[in-house]
Amino acid sequence: MQRRPFLQIAALSALAATLSMANAQTTPFKIGLILPMTGQQASTGRQIEAAVKLYIAQNGDTVAGRKIEVIVKDDVATPDVTKRLAQELVVNDKVNVLAGFGVTPAALAAAPIATQSKTPLVVMAAATSSITEASPYIVRTSFTLPQVSVAMGDWAPKNGVKSVVTLVADYGPGNDAEKFFSERFQLNGGKVVDKLRVPLRNPDFAPFLQKVRDLKPDALFVFVPSGAGAAVMKQFLERGMDKAGIRLIATGDVTDDDQLNDMGDGALGVVTSHHYSAAHPSAMNKKFVEAFQKANKNMRPNFMAMGGYDGMRVIYEALKATGGKGDGTALLEKMKGQIFESPRGQVLIDAQTRDIVQDVYLRKVEKKDGQLYNVEFDVIKAVKDPGKAK
Ligand code: VNL
To answer: Signal sequence span per UniProt (predicted)?
Structure first.
């Protein structure tokens, strides 16, 4: 009778120890996914969320014994909100990774929180070169504007474009696109007649396009963020710019796969440079596009979805490599240096810069099976972000 309580206590504490170990292993692995789900950039949030869900559906929701839990928060692409949400996710929800970030100001607002809390922050969308320098905990799976703009600066002068006007959204990625396209274009003997910047919020392209018409360059080079391309295309055509002999060249953000098919035949022939097209002709991409469309009422994945999908790959593989036990710093180390085949082509997360190295394609809008696509016709292999050499 006397010894029993002791035995019971011993048994109970052994049981408690076992339970707490089991508990450690089954503690969910939390990903705080901050995206613009409403407002002007909502299509970016919708695309990335769909891609994240697809990745989990295809690869399972348990990794190295940890149940994956994704907490989606809508920041309406507003940096003050992003910052507060990142703080809450880290402090209250104790997320293991922060991810998403539809626009540059949002990624920059969250960067100090990643640094202070040693939480890896995976940028799946925002594309200003300098973002990865804002925190040593940032890893990027999208792209950079210098990376894709330089290719157009090489292509255009070889293809009959001797003079251009540039028109970019007036913030980080637009400034990067303007600078890196113009420098390369001029280096190749081209003339930049004027550089125009349009406000990010509720842009009215009409007065800018009127000015371009008057200046009559061979081509207009455009960068606007995902979601704004259709408006540019519409006004470009409505003002008869093409008929006035002005060609439209752009980064692939303008002929965004999310909108391209609704832009109409006026978009045919537009040449852009970018890292992802839904028409990329690899077996892996065909499977990706098919699965994505099947799971999302036929919505076509765009480059934002691609950044979200590969971002999940980078997180999953880092979690596996740490045996499910790594802290933020250990996870970050296993994100660095990953090399893999993505639906966009071969990619590397550069261990030094934590930025993505990838192929950049020249593409032309063409009709395939009655639908408009960015059809790739040339490739520059393994492009590092040229912005990092500054
Ligand atoms: C950014 C760059 C956003 C490219 C985009 O779409 C884009 C950014 C929302 O860095 O803010 O296509």
So the answer is: 1-24
Q: Which string of b and e fits 303-340 if b means at least 16 CB within 10 Å?
A: bbbbbbbbbbbbbbbbbebeebebebebbbebbbebee
Mean of pLDDT over the chain = 95
- pTM of full prediction above 0.90: yes
Whether 302 lines ligand 1, by a CB cut-off of 6 Å, is no
Encoded tokens for 302 = 């765009």
The 10s digit of each residue's pLDDT in 225-250 is 999 999 999 999 999 999 999 999 99
Return the closest-CA partner of residue 52 out of 79, 34, 65.
Answer: 34
29-143+282-354 is a CATH 3.40.50.2300 domain: yes
Nearest CA, atom 5, ligand 1: 225
Closest atom, ligand 1, to C-alpha of 128: 10
Q: From ligand 1's centre to the CA of 44, what distance in Å?
A: 9
CA of 201 to the centre of ligand 1 (A): 13
CA of 126 to the centre of ligand 1 (A): 5
Cβ(102) – ligand 1 distance below 6 Å? yes
Pull the structure tokens for residue 233. 């295309």
Percent of the chain surpassing pLDDT 70: 93
- Does ligand 1 come within 6 angstroms of the Cβ of 144? no
CATH 3.30.1180.10 fits 146-274+361-388, yes or no: no
